[in-house]
Design brief:
By secondary structure, the protein is of the alpha/beta class. The protein contains ten helices and eleven strands. The protein has a domain of 45 residues. The strands form two sheets. It has a seven-stranded mixed beta sheet. The protein has a four-stranded antiparallel beta sheet with strand order 1-2-3-9. A hairpin with a 5-residue loop joins strand 2 and strand 3. Helix 9 runs antiparallel to helix 10.
Amino acid sequence: MHMSPLTNSQDVTLLKEFTSDQLILDWKNSFNIDISEELQDHEEIYLYQCNDTKLKFFFPFDIAGSDKLYEQLQKFDWFYMPDKWEHRIALKSLSSCNDILEVGCAFGAFVESALKLGLNAQGIELNLAAVEVAKKNNLPVESMDLQEFAEKYPLSQDAICSFQVLEHIAQPRKFIELCLQSLRPNGKLIFCVPNAESFLKYQYNLLDMPPHHMTQWTASTFKSLENIFPLKLEKVIKEPLADYHVRSYVDSYGSHFCSISPFWRIIFNRYTNRLYTYILSKSGLRNIVVGQSIYVQFCKLDEIS
């Protein structure tokens, strides 16, 4: 019986099944990347939901992307975007923090921004190619996994941030435990991930599936972490619709409604969709529309008190 990677409970529900052959073909056609080795000869991939936390997770757990996959993906300009919405949100909350760690820092864009504000920030990253780029820019970024950092530097950080990383982790409970091991009491733990309640839920999105993503998160799932870890959820912010997601947003909702009834084809078609895309792109309306990601900020509780 499969267990939830958050609660270790067997109270899970099977939602969907995918064939590895189809995923391999789709990745080849979309990104010209061969993921055969990543899927470890598994013939079927399963999407489950943890009924206690509503976390959606993929199984088997050993198909999370390798360094090789991310070296191939980083060739795309959109993969390691330097200027992210969540970076600006986080920096506003970190002004009182002395020691800050970013886990999965890629080229070190956030670390660099924090340093410019006078914060003592550093990053760790598993993609060696990305670490080399960061080091060429003289940024304090190391090739180190979170477990090694936690063992070397327990209770050393005032804040730990991880942007667009948690969804890649097959065993998020262990990941969060290691973050807490490195975090001082009353320290901040910040995550930003794709919001599974956004327009993403209406897409067949390869980047939101293995071997790229292993888990799917919602605001209620993050709230449930208070029942598992010594954490207090302080802040939840949903990203406004980004300009580069407008077309995907319109197409997602269009496809969804048209699948419900032929009537919706009057509202959503190739002509109206162009109009909606133009209006959202050129007006301020997209700033009040829920976009792709969700930002959450926790405070580590002082268990002694």
